[in-house]
Amino acid sequence: QKEVEQNSGPLSVPEGAIASLNCTYSDRGSQSFFWYRQYSGKSPELIMFIYSNGDKEDGRFTAQLNKASQYVSLLIRDSQPSDSATYLCAVTPNDYKLSFGAGTTVTVRA
Amino acid sequence: GAVVSQHPSWVICKSGTSVKIECRSLDFQATTMFWYRQFPKQSLMLMATSNEGSKATYEQGVEKDKFLINHASLTLSTLTVTSAHPEDSSFYICSARDRYSGTSLEQYFGPGTRLTVT
Question: Per-residue pLDDT averaged across A83-88, rounded?
Answer without folding.
Answer: 96
